[in-house]
Amino acid sequence: MKITVIGHICIDVINHPDGKETQGYGGIYYSLVALASIADPYTKIFPVFSIGNKDYNTLIENLNKYSNIDTDGIFKHDGPTNQVHLFYNEKQARIECSHNIAPPIPFKKIKSYLETNLILINMVSGFDITLNTLDEIRMQVREDAIPIYMDAHSLSLGVNGEGSRYRRPLTDWRRWLFMLHTVQMNAEEAANLTVEKYDELNFVKQVTTLNTNNVIITRSADGCTLYHDEHKQIQRFDYSGEKIERIIDSTGCGDVFAAAYCAKYIRSKNSALSAEFANKVAAYNAECAGSSELDKLSKFKINEIK
Known about the structure:
This protein is α/β, with parallel strands linked by helices.
């Protein structure tokens, strides 16, 4: 089995409520290493993204520790790697600032990795790919019915001249969410994505009319909801928040959720089972300190082949 992973990498600078600051790889790195740690031994992972020249060799050396990651699709871009500053308060609410966002990943870099079994697109920066590139991906894989999982992530975030991110609706959100297997977003992202400002259920109804089968709304410590379109009937599955010892760092939980869902779905082909599994794995990620402890997710390793 093959999973193609598309999205921007970044360097996270995390400012914790207690005043401590930590740094590490962020963005698509969370999804990538989470997949490497969780996916069954017969699944190969093919990331496609760029990184700043000076950081390339170190990253490749780091990823080569994972035998199931093929790094050939990672390429260099001129200039520095995107640096994201995250400021958390005691309730884990955050302010985000981005500097040096990479250029969108061009379709010519992605095309040779579309003979795959599943595509995970994580809109880490919101500018990871253009809408035209997404259309080209959909057209390329449509006949083979290859599922596309999109984490909307920063799609509804603009960026001002100082690098601060802010919510703004998308006039073309329907084109973005058209003909996907699954789209994932948190409750805030769902509430702010559309110009129309639909409530959650009506938003889901609008999305499923676009031939998108599943909408997942993540709710931080309160778990998540999966809306599944079964023959034009929307089924709702609610998963409560998992009990964990304590929240150490909630960074990357959405990225890990997407990875865990894809790792489970590629074998089970069951959206409800995959969402339930992802809810558990993402909760556990909050007990880990940044991306340096992602290997701990191997406790959820999928060994059965179904």
